[in-house]
């Protein structure tokens, strides 16, 4: 085989750089990039001077801008002045644009103030440094602020400025209110450049910016403003937040105005009174007029202005009042307008309207019809016939005015439909002419034949036969009043303006003693009631069923013998069947209140109309029969009395016991009566108690009923009647024989009867002496309590003690013929020369309070109630199986 020769090697010369240098070059590039990256990430070092290092922690405290991290505190050093510290902060490169000459730094920490809590998030994340970017060249050295700077005005909303003499009680964060609704806050306050004013910056939320107008008026509503100038006391305060933390309120003038713009400035008034505006009017009063600053000016019941200032002349003869009148009332200021001082009068209307009592007098304005005028002279007193703007004027003639006065109500069915406007003497002083007006929408109630009567105050008459009191509603009792009704006739004629009517003395005279009420009785059910007194009831007082009006009082009169008042009710046709023989009626006038230690304070009222004008309420239990024409019901003083239907009795109690009014009377644990009052009966201290027995307890008012006072008992094992410790003693009762005669007078016993202890058996134990036994001492069988001592007494010959014991029914079978009883009171000691000293005390209770134990034979016969046994001094050694001593028969 022939070998092929190899071709010769071809050698070439490399002219470029070697590939070996690629790796070092790549390493150099990476190293350079790492150096550059480390330089970029190292950040920018700045220095911020703080007053204290409190809250600053190296490598923990962050620099935050709008919640984003911008750097970290890397070191702290104390400055040479020994008063400040310098914080070295490493700022991220991307935050470099925050570092300008006017940039501001501060430490953010939790702050609690009256206006709120700020920086609450730092409780979890720790303190941090806040920054607000500024203008100017870049900087690296800064001085920290002590407080956060004012917030930037870059949020949506309205930014306005107020100028004031004082920023009293205002703080950053104080709220801004419109009609007591929170609409913004105070963001900053500062002195003006001249130092004359304080500038307060407000921020109004976007949804409320439309409320601020160019004519808006702002006032400081911080705290409580009290202006006292008797008889006027003016107290103003805003919300609780404004009282504590300060606040600003504003309102808008009634005329149209464009909305405010950001940057607008407004005056901040000291209070609401200073913020008000009006037309200035000068009014001259006599120097003795009882006026004060702030007194209201009222026209036709509408407040139209106030007294801004008062100036007394040098000779004290004139008082010049400067008024501010609402611009809307400008047309009232004309020649012929009259002003006078209207003083408040005590009435139920004024009691309901607290402003009439707190504000005191006011200035009344009657508008004139002449040319516009701004200076007037006030009348010395109200005119006899003030103007009637609308309604029916009437005149009433009477021989005496009584307690009627200007403002007294004119009543129809106890509802006010008008008022008295004035009065004067006529016929050479023989009679009184009363001017009144019935409001426009009630004028049709008055006809030419309407009958008016004086329903004022209390009518009193006294003679040897008795005393007669008569009154109308509480409203007319206090303020005086006139009532009227219109008899129903075929062709009535409407009353004419200023028609004169006779004013009768009372309703009986006005109604012809009820003869003119025939039309009002048609298709209605007449009910007769008897009452001890009329109270505040009157004709027209409502009759209520479940607080709904179903009728009214039509008439009342004094009984022939003067012992009670007879009242007639008219029940409307749809409700006639609500009344039956079981119905209970009570006086629902006013507010009834009762206070007792057992039940506390109880308030009860029916409708508001009955509370003011008087009224009668009733309820009808089931099972009653239809009401006959001659049936008479009793009118009780209140609802509780109608339910109780109390029967009054008298009880004499021993003088060594305590009893208070209001104590309940109980029968077998149920309350069947109440002690109404207690008084001293004789020199021995005997108590005379007036009590009532409720309807279910009437059967106890019979001879032989046993009354006694139950007192609390405290023993080691139990407390009997613990409620009496707080509320006082109560009275227990046991009824007398079933067929005993009725009685209303009783003499109470000093203790309960011996056989009054429920089911079980009662025993009598004969003992040589009582020892430590007492009422309530326990009876034990095998150390189990089965009864108790209910009492004790000396025997007839005084040679022994009879101890009464009650054994509960579930244990009565344990007492048998041959049972042995012994006294286990105190400690029994037995000394024996050979056995030593032996102590015996069965229970701690018997050691302190005494006790009795017994044992019985297994096959003995049960004993009868009232059986006698001998009470031994100590436990007998011989058991009853062999002792077998029979019980002593009861005597």
TrEMBL record:
Keyword Disulfide bond attached: no
Record carries keyword Membrane: yes
TM helices/strands, residue ranges: 19-36
Subcellular location: Cell inner membrane
Leader peptide range in chain numbering: none
Source organism, top-level taxon: Bacteria
Region (Disordered): 870-891
Pfam families, A to Z: MlaD
All residue ranges annotated as the Mce/MlaD domain in the record: 43-134, 157-217, 278-344, 391-451, 526-584, 646-718, 764-820
Alphabetized UniProt keyword annotations: Cell inner membrane, Cell membrane, Membrane, Transmembrane, Transmembrane helix
PANTHER family given in the database record: INTERMEMBRANE TRANSPORT PROTEIN PQIB-RELATED, INTERMEMBRANE TRANSPORT PROTEIN YEBT
Protein name, entry field: MlaD family protein
Annotated source species: Marinobacterium aestuariivivens
